[in-house]
Amino acid sequence: MPAATTQGIGSFFSSGGLLIIMLIAMFAIMIIPQRKREKKVKEMLAAIKVGDRIRTIGGIYGTVSAIKDDVITVMVGPDKIRLVFTRGAIANVENVAAENTMTEEVKEINE
Question: What's residue 32's pLDDT?
Answer without folding.
Answer: 87
